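Can you make up a protein sequence with its backbone structure tokens?

===
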Amino acid sequence: APNRNMQTRQKNIGIRAGVKWRHNACRDSFGSYRMAELRNTHNVAEEMGNSPAVVKKHYFQAVTKAEAGKFWAIRPA
């Protein structure tokens, strides 16, 4: 399964870098920062494949709009 392979790769990269990789870290970051940016549970739920209730419970007010702006401004060096 491609998803399982990606999770294994992320975990191994984290181990080599000395970082503990948290399950669903990328997904949770996306949900939190996207929710802060859009402030629209229905749109974020559709993008994530979740219900608006789940999005509101887990991602609403997790980060500020200013923090989201900094996150989305991250670019490779």
The CA atoms of residues 32 and 62 lie 6 Å apart. The chain has a mean pLDDT of 91. The chain has one domain: 2-72. Helices lie at 2-17, 25-38, 41-48, 52-59, 65-72.
